[in-house]
Amino acid sequence: QGVTLPPRTARAVMAIVGDDPWQLHEEAAKLSAYAKATGAAAVTDAMVGLLVSGAREESLFALIDACTEGRCADAMTMLERMLEAGVSELQVVVMLEKQYRTLIAAADFVERGERDKNVIAKKLGIHPFPAGKALAAARRHSPADLRARHSELLEIERQMKTSAGAPNALLGLFMAKMAA
Which stretches in the chain have pLDDT values below 50? Predict the structure, then answer.
């Protein structure tokens, strides 16, 4: 489509999408169309992070890791980037809820002795890349902690939907509490 896909960026797409030719073609077409529409000569890593669905999952894992590792400033920067990219606060909460459900399921598999990310991916109906990230995160956090965080997110969603709290403030408090 008249734009360049640098090898480094192509490898980033493959790391997220895998080696499925159809999905790679679709992602490349989407990225190329976006680059062309914005007047860019090449697809960038930022475009991959914005448009490739697995990249958003990767961003969520990075956000969760930053929070649980006590890196509140990094977590808030990541949250701001997501919001600037057009993701609403409620979308962030719902995506975090989904990630925590995946982490809880992965932790359950780890407790049962399953360690293969491909098996877990198949059982959860997700790509092996996020399954591997979930498996790694599940090893670092207790299932009880993961369930507590998920419950907190459900409460934040309820408060957002009932106008019981300012969405930015609720997310900020959640990030700070996780980082504490």
Answer: none
